[in-house]
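Suppose a colleague, Dr. K., hands you the sequence of a protein chain of 552 amino acids and asks what its three-dimensional shape might be. Before reaching for any lab equipment, you can write down a predicted structure in token form. Begin with the sequence itself:
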Amino acid sequence: MGVLPTDRGQAESIATVLLVAVVVVSATTFGAYYVESSTEGSAGGAAGSAGSASGTPVEITMAATDESLTLVHNGGPSVASDALRVVVANASGEFSYDFESGQIRDGGGTDGRFDPGETWRLGWDQAGGSEITVSVVDDATGSLLFQQTVTIESAAESDTDGRADGMDAAERTLAVDAGPQRTVSGERGSSVGLDGSTGASGDSVTYRWEIVDYDGLSTTAVAVVDADSLDSTFEVRENVSDATHTVVVELTVENATASGEDRTAVTVEQANQPPVADAGEDKALESNDDTDRGDEEENNGRGDGGDGGDDGSDGDGRNDALEKPLYVSGAAVLYPPTGQMAPAAADVDGSNQPEGPHVELNGSGSYDPDGGRLQYEWTIVGYGGLEASNVKLTQSDTATPEFILLRPRIPGPRTATVKLTVTDSAGTTATDRVNVTMYPDVDPTIESFDADPSTVLLADRPVDATLTTSATHPTDELSYDYRVGLGGLGQLFLDAELTEQSPGSARITVSRGLFWGFVADGNQVQLPVTVFVSDGDGETTTDTLYVSVEKS
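The predicted structure, expressed as tokens, is then:
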């Protein structure tokens, strides 16, 4: 057989231990037997089950092959594993192994005890056919729990001689250790190594890792990479944010004649996904060049809350509809900068009314992928050349704060930058930024105003022409109004009316007037058409074109 290997690299004489064991065992109430030193003779076949300190026998059966030594606890009390030693004697001497040198399988060992139904296995490399005597000693009580002399078998043999009761050939022949329990973050992309070991060797040995219990996770959330290697990797492929899960992984080792398996667990800790910050689209607002205009207009009855007697005009040619909030591109909500109308949420006395032109920012697109509530914090991080005292934020801890321009006049466009920081319940943050561009108080700009066709031929039937207008304003939505300028004698020659009108376009229909017959063939009458483009403040820009009406 040669020298038996020991994990601690030391051999101890068993003679003294066995002598103590004989004394202790002899004192038990259920009986005793004489144990000889293994160097002087054999204890015979199965020596039987020695008594524990309590007098209850511990039933242990054994199997020994050239690849492993296996002990099975078949009944009786459990024993603290750190107090157990296994002593193996052969022609070369006696060798002692701590119980921790092997592995308690079948789910055991976690409580630090060798319990009924559990199997202890020690992997080694010994010569088949040699005779050994195996003893199990409880150092805590000085008891000899088991002793038996057997002949080491070859792992390739299929006969049952010497097999421990309740064990099949595969369990008996290949020792497998799937390694200690691992822990990995549940964040997608995390991984941890699996470190398996086995007493099997040779070219015919194969390995297979398999997840046998996902603990409620989907089969695509986690996986084992290099599953045909002894050392593989456990990967998290989807964020695990609902809870912490314990996934069970099994390692199976096979050779040409036998197989063995062992399981370990991987704890996948619940991951916190970072929040997503969305500060909304860029905004724009228009400054107020006349800070006194709002007070004057309130004194003229425009800010009295409405007495039901309005005739639709505020006295200066502006329609009351212009006093409503204006909705511009990018979902910005602009309120009239003159202060003549408080927002709907303002107090009657106007105490909650913003101090100047303002725009509402919108961070409601932010969210927590884990479904938690967010905290909001808005800060101005760029002032576009203005003094910090010229702008301010209100309700900056909500999803929809207001950005206010306090400076009444600005020399030209200025862009401020506002940063949104959102924080989830775990304290993880995310940021986004939005720009607010401030413009001086300007009138609408008409880029183009055209008629198609610009010349119409009028005979017996009415003819149409289409009007198109392109106009811009830095902040406001624009309104359009078209008028046909048939005054004086023009109404005697032509009859023209607007038949369709929409923002940016209109259609006019031209027909003969009372004196159209006096117009010579081939002559033209110029029909003036004017467009009025108004912004949110009621400031209006106009342009006029002429449609040539030719008699045919």
